[in-house]
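User: Sequence recovery, please. Input:
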């Protein structure tokens, strides 16, 4: 019963103690780093799909004339399956445009890397400044980096949708 009478301090914490200081510059750099890593990851997969799909199309297309001249069981099925594989892979290459996407994603990743290094350079420059000048310099660098990120992402979207064609009805 005496435990209830013990003073355990204030029930509501001081707001100044509970609000952590947010390093917006660090958050911005982390955002750009994650975004750059995602572009890198996607570009690697698009490169793999493009190269593997292209290689399989070439091999299956080159094998098709040879397969027609040989005598073996289930020849009709093998020839049909080879034609289907060629058609499907060609369709996937055309639909997903892995070659264009690979190049676009690599360009975006490269631009983000450049923006991040430029930002880091400006952060180092800010270390030589004091007070409000340092804060202003860091803020301007972060704003410039984030504006660059928006531009890179917009350009990537525009590149992707620029050649996207939807089927249209023809007038009769």
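Assistant: Recovered sequence (172 residues):
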């Amino acid at each position: 019963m005496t435990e209830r009478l013990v003073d355990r301090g204030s029930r509501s914490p001081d707001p100044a103690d509970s609000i952590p200081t947010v390093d917006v510059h660090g958050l911005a750099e982390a955002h750009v780093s994650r975004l750059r890593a995602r572009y890198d990851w996607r570009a690697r997969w698009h490169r793999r799909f493009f190269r593997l799909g292209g290689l399989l199309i070439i091999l299956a297309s080159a094998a098709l004339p040879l397969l027609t001249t040989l005598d073996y069981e289930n020849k009709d099925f093998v020839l049909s399956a080879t034609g289907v594989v060629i058609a499907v892979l060609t369709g996937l290459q055309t639909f997903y445009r892995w070659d264009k996407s690979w190049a676009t994603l690599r360009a975006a990743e490269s631009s983000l890397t450049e923006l991040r290094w430029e930002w880091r350079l400006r952060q180092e420059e800010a270390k030589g400044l004091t007070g409000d000048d340092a804060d202003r310099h860091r803020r301007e660098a972060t704003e410039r980096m984030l504006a660059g990120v928006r531009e890179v992402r917009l350009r990537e979207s525009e590149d992707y949708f620029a050649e996207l064609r939807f089927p249209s009805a023809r007038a009769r």
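Helices lie at 15-18, 24-69, 75-96, 98-127, 131-162.
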